[in-house]
Each structure stands twice: as structure tokens, then as C-alpha cells.
Amino acid sequence: MDAALQSRALRAGDELEGAPAEEILGWAVEEFDTKLVVAASMAEAILVDMLARLRSDVPVVFIDTGYHFAETVGTRDAVAATYDLPLISVRPQLTVVGQDAVYGQDLYKTDPDLCCRMRKVVPLDRALAPYRAWAAGSRRAESAGRANLKVVDWDARRGKVKIHPLATWTDADVDRYVAEHDVIVNPLLSDGYESVGCWPCTRRGAGRAGRWAGTNKTECGIH
Q1: Catalytic residue list contains 201
Q2: Model pLDDT for residues 65-81, shown as the tens digit of each residue
Q3: What is the pTM of this model?
């Protein structure tokens, strides 16, 4: 464990609490340069847009699970075509067909935690390995489980700094930034989906209520 890096992350989390999102992301870019990577789910491209206004060489990573809605893949392609940033799509080791052959069909039904681990967590871990810090668009307002997100924190499992520039943003803040900067938005957000994940485990619903509906599962394990 890098104790000095952990200490720096926790100190920054206190110092930057209440700062504008642009300042938080700017701190991360200045602090970690190209050892920073931004993870994008392609619900909307706010964090990508914000990053592109600061640098053009900090990479963006997208987890291509093989189970995404066509609209999500289309959003990724639109983001790649619009922004001059390196966009890395990472995939699981097994295709969906390969996973079905090894673990049985529709693992997302029989063992959703294992499915998420193989198709999301492990690929992201692999993608994050070369970096010292990563940023994500998670917000406190999204769910009770995210209510205590720090704007900068220590990701103990990965041994990296984790940045949440949008942690304090409300839904109104998101809408305002999208309107002001004409940000690319996944069309599913206008079709009753307020949170978008893999199609087998996502339903229309307010907030994150449509994710893993009917189960006790609330997170995929990435965060």
C-alpha cells in the first residue's frame, strides 16, 4: 500500500469538499497527469466533456460488457467521434456465448454478482492497473448507498486514488450542465430509464430503482 498516496487522497478529500466539480477534476489532472483515467458509463458525457476542456491526453475507459443496450454503445461511439480524447473500450475475457458455455445460460439470473464481477469488475481492474488515480461520475443523490461519497477518496482494494468530481451534484445540476454545454446524453434517459446498466438487469424506473429490480442487489461492485 502507498501510504503517502493514501494520505494525499484523504487530505484532498477534506480540502476539496464543496469545491466546484471543474476544480476537483482539474486538481486530479494536475496531480496525476496521464496517470489519471476517467471511467465513463455512457449515461451522459458530463465528465468526459469536463475533461476535454482541461486536457486531450487523459484517457477515458468504457466497460463493454457485451450486454449493453444498443443506445449505450451508440452513445459511446458518439462520444468517441466528438471528443479528442483516447477512449478505451475494455471487454471481459469471455464473450457472452463463451460465458454461457462455461457457466450456464443467463448467469445474470442465476448468479448476478458473479456475472457483474466477470463482465464489469475484473475488466475494469485490468484497465485501471497502469494508473494511479481514477475518476467516475457517481453522485450522492443517486442512492442511499452513495450518500457518503467523498469528492476524493482512497480506493483501498485497488490501491489508487478515486475522484468523484460530481459527488455533490443534484439532478438539477446535471440537467443544467447538459443544457449549457450541449452534452451527449444516452437516449434511454429520455425513455423512462434514470439509470442505465446492462439490458438484462435494467428496467425503467426513478433513480436507480430500475437496476436489478426485484432483488436485493444495488451495486455491481465497481465502486
Answers
A1: no
A2: 999 999 999 999 999 99
A3: 0.91
